[in-house]
Amino acid sequence: MVEKADVFGGTTCFSAGVIWIPGSRQAREAGISDNKEDVLTYLQAEAGNRLDRDKAETFADHAAEVLEWFEANSHVSYMLSPAWSDYHPGQPGASKGGRSLGPRPFDGRTLGKWFDKLRPPLKTTTILGGMMVGREDLPQFFTMTKKLSSASHVGKLFLRYAKDRISYSRGTRLSNGNALVAMLAQSAFERGVKLMLKTPVVELT
Question: What is the mean predicted confidence (pLDDT) over 86-104?
C-alpha cells in the first residue's frame, strides 16, 4: 500500500463508512426483506440513462455475498442501520431502512505502531479532544439520564477514553470510517502487506 501523506486512510477516515448493500445477512437476520426488482427500480430512478443495467443486476445479485466474504476473511465487520432510509426515500423502489450498514467499532490498539499513523477523524466528530462517538452510540447519549443501560454504556466510553489518553494521543475505540480503514489495514498487515507513507506515485517519462 502506498500513501503520499504521512498518515494513511484518506478521506475515508473522515466519513461515516456506510455501505449500501440490499439483502444483506444483517438485514435478513433482522427480518427485513428486499427484492431485486425494487433495488433495480431505485438504482434506475437514481442513475437514469447512466445506469449500466448489467452491472446493476450483478450488484443486486452478489453485493450481499461479497460483504459476507469480506466479513469471513478479514477484520471487516458491519452492522445494520435499520432506521436509515435510502438517500432519496421518495424515489420508486426506495427502502425506508435495511440497505445501509455501518462499520462496527474497532479497537485501534490492534494496529500497534501503526495506530498513530491512522488519519484522525474530523475534530467535529469527536468530543473531549479525541473521543470518537459513532452513530450507534448516539441513542445511548440521548437517553443516558433516563435509562440505566444507556448511562452504563456512556460511562464505559468515558472510562475507556480516560485510560486511552494515558498512553495514546486520542481514543483507541474507533468508529465510522476510521474503524473501516483500521479493519482493512490490520487485515492487510496480517497478510504481510507493506505500507509506505510519504511515497507519492509519479509518472516516469
Answer: 94
Look at residue 84 in the predicted model and tell me its pLDDT.
87
Assess contact for 16 and 103: CB atoms under 8 A. Answer: no
Buried-state track 101-116, b at ≥16 Cβ within 10 A, e below 16: bbbbbbebebbeebbe
| 93 grid coordinates | 423502489
Compute the Cα dihedral for 163, 166, 168, 169 and give only its sign: positive
Please give the grid coordinates belonging to residue 107: 479497537
Residue position matching grid coordinates 507493506: 194
Q: Which residue has the higher pLDDT, 138 or 181?
A: 181
**Is-contact 20 66, C-beta < 8 A?**
no
> What pLDDT is recorded for position 94?
95
C-alpha cell at 190: 496480517
Rounded to an integer, the average pLDDT of 51-57 is 96
- Neighbouring C-alpha atoms within 13 Å toward the C-beta of 164: 22
- Residue whose C-alpha cell is 441513542: 139
- Rounded distance, CA 60 to CA 22, Å? 7
Cα–Cα distance measured from residue 203 to residue 53, given in angstroms and rounded to the nearest whole number: 35
pTM of the prediction?
Answer: 0.89
